[in-house]
Each structure stands twice: as structure tokens, then as C-alpha cells.
TrEMBL record:
Biological processes annotated in GO: protein secretion by the type II secretion system
NCBIfam families linked to this entry: IV_pilin_GFxxxE, typeII_sec_gspG
InterPro entries: Bac_GSPG_pilin, N_methyl_site, Pilin-like, T2SS_protein-GspG_C, Type2_sec_GspG
Family indicated by similarity: Belongs to the GSP G family.
Pfam families named in the record: N_methyl, T2SSG
Domain Type II secretion system protein GspG C-terminal: 42-147
GO CC, alphabetical: plasma membrane; type II protein secretion system complex
Protein name: Type II secretion system core protein G
Transmembrane segments: 20-39
Keyword entries, A-Z: Cell inner membrane, Cell membrane, Membrane, Methylation, Transmembrane, Transmembrane helix
Subcellular location: Cell inner membrane
Amino acid sequence: MVFAMKQGAVVPAGRSAGFTLLELLVVIVIIGLLAAYVGPKYFSQLGKSEVTAARAQIDAFDKTLDTYRLDVGRYPTTDEGLAALMTAPPSAGAKWNGPYLKKAIPPDPWGNPYQYRAPGARGDYEVLSLGKDGQPGGSGDNADITN
């Protein structure tokens, strides 16, 4: 058998240096196992951040609605909705001192409009996001988020 020297290693003549099919398969399996372990953890954190963002937006609506009530003397009706924060409803009269938001009313983190009801289920009003699925009820990421 004849040996040739390549970059300081002894390699049989006629055979090139490189990875075998078995070595490549082992590396692919290891990468797949890592992706299977890390992937779900990453995507669950993404869902949690969207819920956190929705809660923060609803808290901002709460503060803005309180300012509206201080000016007008009442919360917007269900028919007036959150739009009363941007444009004066006819029933607000000269007391309206808005707009109460710097920008247009944002959608929830999933692109759905926020819902507004007055009176609410547990107070003077209720602002809610219907969650990821955009349907009432649900659990996990699909659960309703309310003030």
C-alpha cells in the first residue's frame, strides 16, 4: 500500500480527505435534535410576548378612557366605542378635549380590532382582545384578554 502526505496527515494514496456519509448523518441528527429542543421553547415565548403586548395596550386604553371620562363626565357608550378617543362623538359636546390618542387605534398583536363594551362585565366598561384566533373564549394564546 502506498501512502502520500497531505498537509501533515498520512492518507492512503488514491483516497481524498473529507467526511464520510456516516459522519454527515450524525451531524444532521444532532442539529435536528437541537432544533426539536429549542424550537418549541422559542415559539412559546413568542406567544407570551404577544399576550404581554395586548395587556399593555389594554392598560393604555384604560388610562386614556379615564382621561376621556374626566373631560366628558362619562365613558364612551358601546356604540361610540374606542373611536370616541379619536373623534368627538356628537353626545360629548364641547367637553371633549381630544384626540386622546397620538395615533390611530391600533389592532391587537394578532391584527384583530379591540372590542369595547360599556357597561362591561366587571365594571363601567370593558376593553378586550379576542386572542390569536379572533373568536370569543378559548385557552392559551386563543384566550380572551380583558381589562
